[in-house]
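Hi again,

Forgot to attach this to my earlier email, sorry! This is the prediction with protoporphyrin IX containing FE bound. I've pasted everything inline since the attachment limit keeps bouncing my files.
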Amino acid sequence: MTGEGFAARLRRETAQAHAGAERSPFMAELLAGDLAPEALTALLLQVHHLYAVLEPAVDAMRGDVVVAPFADEHLRRLPAVSEDLRARLGEGWRSHLVPLPATERYAQRLQEVAGWPGGLVAHHYLRYLGDLSGGQVVRRLLARAYGVAEEELRSWDFPGVPSPKRYRDHYRSLLDAAPWDEAERDRVVAEASRGYRLNEDLFADLGGSLPAWRR
Ligand code: HEM
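Structure tokens for the complex follow:
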């Protein structure tokens, strides 16, 4: 396909994997407002684990020429997710941070790729471009379904990114400009697909509690 940049290819070649994660029963029921608010808290508790591994890994690779352009302070999520959890669970929120098996596997993969710039960017793309794309829709749906003000869903709120649409375009230009040869591009696409499956597995683990959360 001529004229297609790497960002477009990445999106196209992972579209099916994205659809797999998106169609998870846990997310479908959560977004439909069919679950108790504890289900949203449970999701945030797991997501906290992921950012607690991903963000220090990105910080450690800030000096790398490939990672540096992506390592934007305005994207940082851990403080926002922590704030949401404190608001939902109170001061003792940290005692609720128990990773599910799929979260442990996801976090382990993040650790494994922490020293590989292309792999780290693949996971960076999944989380942050996801938060700035579908995450913005997710935030609106969750706010409506669970009676929470959008401002209280800080996990998907990027005060330092006034236009998610423009940021997404900028992010795609960074992906297009990343100095990867074809073989490395193949590996990055494969890692992103793997990342979607890790997310799908995480939703499946969360789905184990669906009967308890249905209302
Ligand atoms: C119920 C769950 C989800 C919903 C409703 C959802 C929804 C969406 C939507 C509407 C878009 C925009 C598509 C477009 O621009 O045409 C999008 C893009 C995206 N989503 Fe999701 N998504 C979900 C789960 C996930 C997960 C689990 C991840 C990975 C952690 C993810 C990562 C992404 C990424 C990286 C993009 C940008 C793709 C690109 O333009 O390259 N999404 N999502």
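Residues 13 and 26 are 24 Å apart (CA to CA). The longest helix spans residues 182-207.

That should be everything now.

G.
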